[in-house]
Amino acid sequence: MKQAPPDRPPARGLRVAIVRSLFNRPVTDGLVAGARQALVEMGAADRSVRVYELPGAFELPLAAQAAARTGRFDAVVALGAVIEGDTDHYEHVAREAASGLAAVARESGVPVAFGVLTVRQEQQAVQRSAAGPDNKGAEAARAAVMTALALREIRGNGRARSPKRANANRRGTEEAQRAARPSAGRRPR
Fold first, then answer.
1. Could you read off the pLDDT tens digit of each residue along the chain, which spans 189 residues?
2. Which of 11, 47, 150, 164 could form a disulfide with 42, with the two C-beta atoms 3.0–4.6 Å apart?
3. Residue 24 resides in a domain
4. Number of structural domains, the chain?
5. What is the pTM of this model?
6. Which domain holds residue 135?
7. From 89, 106, 155, 164, the catalytic residue
8. Is 89 one of the annotated active-site residues of the chain?
């Protein structure tokens, strides 16, 4: 039996961006409601959760990347629903959404939870977005919070490291290393 971790990690003080697809809106409305409810249950303040709407699941990685790069969010929750149709379009969109969101997390260092349903039938999406303990939006929100907290612990600080600060620190270190290198060219007399 597949089952997500039941933990309800503390989200107090975390800032979370939800990027959601408007395609299959009745389903994604349920996912957003589940994610918001889970975040509130974990102690997140309503003002610390921002929802951004996109046309479809294909656009989710770009919006997740933009949110992660701002340095304003500790985690991103990506929500969408890709339902198989009569063509291969379903496979292409699902694959690109999944690989794009994973790349954003790796490149930005900001957790990006994958709450994109990829199902064969509409009824499966409806079941997974319904209110209750099996809501996949809630599951994605919990995963985002757990990952953000784990990264804080791994990094050894009380705040998630902002990409802007990480890049500035990296640039400063590179500049210091260049200044310490002996210059090539003329020798001192």
1. 555 555 678 899 999 999 999 999 999 999 999 999 999 999 999 999 999 999 999 999 999 999 999 999 999 999 999 999 888 888 999 999 999 999 999 999 999 999 999 999 999 999 999 999 999 999 999 999 999 999 999 999 765 444 454 454 444 545 544 444 444 444 444
2. 11
3. yes
4. 1
5. 0.80
6. 16-180
7. 89
8. yes
